[in-house]
Hints:
By secondary structure, the chain is of the alpha+beta class. It folds into 2 domains: 54 residues; 159 residues, Calycin beta-barrel core domain (Lipocalin). The protein is 42% helix and 26% strand. The longest helix is centred in the N-terminal third of the chain and has 53 residues. The radius of gyration is 27 Å and the shape is globular. The termini are far apart.
Amino acid sequence: MQEAIIKYAGALAIGAMLLLSAQAQAEDTKTATETESHDHDHAHSSEAEKQIYKGYFEDDQIKPRTLADWQGDWQSVYPYLQDGTLDPVMAHKAEHGSMSAQEYRDYYDVGYKTDVDRIVIDGDTFTFYRDGAPVTATYASDGFEILTYKKGNRGVRFIFKKTGGDDAAPAFVQFSDHRIAPAKADHYHLYWGDDRAALLEEVTNWPTYYPSAMNGDQIVDAMLAH
């Protein structure tokens, strides 16, 4: 009798061990599947973002944006191009593109050129700095426009209209940052002036701004990452 009980207890123990092993294996399989699924989704998300960054997207992917996406203190990158800080970026573009480093530098000299070296966006208020002198105005959303470029890709300009402030401040500002839906900008191109339609025709001069807290080397790293 005692021997039978011992055999029965042993069978129960073995059964419990097998059950725990099966459960652990199932959990491992579930975890691996979830990880694989997450990585797969992330890969798709990254690829979709890359396509949007390059200017390939559907109209229904575009969503309205507010000034919350561009809040902060921003600096022009034009001085960094002029003083040679961005030379590694131009060299990198030459290695992978169709122009020489100097030709890229000339191209970006036209694109980045501006006398507005700093912009602070706080709520709906913009302060533009030229040689340290501020000009301030408030702005409200005026929708967005889709632009189609020569090579077939597209861009979206998110537009804001002046609602008050200094006379010297532009009537319109238009953001382009390679995004088409609400997201915090890490940098942006800004167009400004008093003629909304004329600004949409401007595609050669696109003053570019990065956070003022970044130094030149950090901006180079960010540009090379793209």
